[in-house]
């Protein structure tokens, strides 16, 4: 699946007609007439414009041309999603946004692009955006626009129906994206997959659409053999029926999104590559379908994992952790400076944190602080939950080394994290993100459907940890 161009961005040419959006703070209403004239300012006031964040009103400027006034928050961290409303609410045409100097141009571009995103498979071809943001040629190739393209990629993959995106399709899409930037990519299947990833195979071989594992390596143009190694792992369950522990029909309605972890780390990898970060990068995606069939896994099956640990299948609907654990163990064999996985893993995380906050688990205090602070800086928050070792015994089994489910009905997100931790080296810096990867309703910049929260925060954290000369560099060296 190719990455769609951010065609909501346009480089203005001489003579082209460009209209203006003035971003206004509530405290700046008194100076509106200096921007649009006395009559237009009075007209805006009569329309109830108070420059509340996200409020938009159209007025004629001093020459009678349509001009927009758009409310933004007072000083502080600005959520770029707010600018997504412009892509949806402005009239057709090319628009230039004039914002206060302390509002980053990055946020304006990113928010506008994310608001312009649309996905559909209707018989009539989707129209290109007719409301466009005027940028410079440099801005069109900036990190903001590449971040938007990467998030569009993740959204497209998550939104694609499962009949059109099975394990082989997901693997093929990932290979296309990764090879574009010179990555070495292997797609593993069949007997080789069964041998190397026995638990993942035990999940995926229940479907007539057999499992695939994508393994990729890439390094930045300035990265030598001693450059930091970042290892990314993603859960790519293209559809999750629950297996023999069958989900109710209502529980399957969004299960095309169960590959959201793979889509998220692929978007992150693409962003890292477009910015040519001075790191070595590894990516592993477990692409499977959890089906009901005569050759599907059964409750109480016992399988020996890649690590040698035997795992009892206490519930076939707890398949995501089985997909990840062999990949995590293999990734750890390379001793990466950071091992990070993303998965749509547990409903328990959603009960605890709701749909907007990915749950972050981390076995390193310093690393977790960097990730959480990056989330605040990028208005892309995550919330840390503990790897509480007191619950580890809940994963016990009478016949195997470990069960894939807890013996207790509580703390499901934590016990899932503890299960994964058993396949991570004790001295390995590891981050696990449990994400919903979906918007239940449309909001500015976040249309209903698939999404990849955390990409911006994780990218920021990686650049701070491994690409900037600052105190946090000591974390990776200690």
Automatic annotation (TrEMBL):
Q: Which UniProt keywords apply?
A: Aminopeptidase, Hydrolase, Manganese, Protease
The chain's coiled-coil residues are none
Q: Which residues form the Cytosol aminopeptidase domain?
A: 315-322
Source domain of life is: Bacteria
Q: Tell me the InterPro entries matching this sequence.
A: Leucine_aapep/pepB, Macro_dom-like, Peptidase_M17_C, Peptidase_M17_N_1
- Could you give a GO molecular-function term held by this entry? aminopeptidase activity
Q: Which SUPFAM superfamilies does UniProt cross-reference here?
A: Zn-dependent exopeptidases
Family, per entry: Belongs to the peptidase M17 family.
Record's protein name: Leucyl aminopeptidase
Q: What is the lineage of its organism?
A: Bacteria, Pseudomonadati, Pseudomonadota, Alphaproteobacteria, Acetobacterales
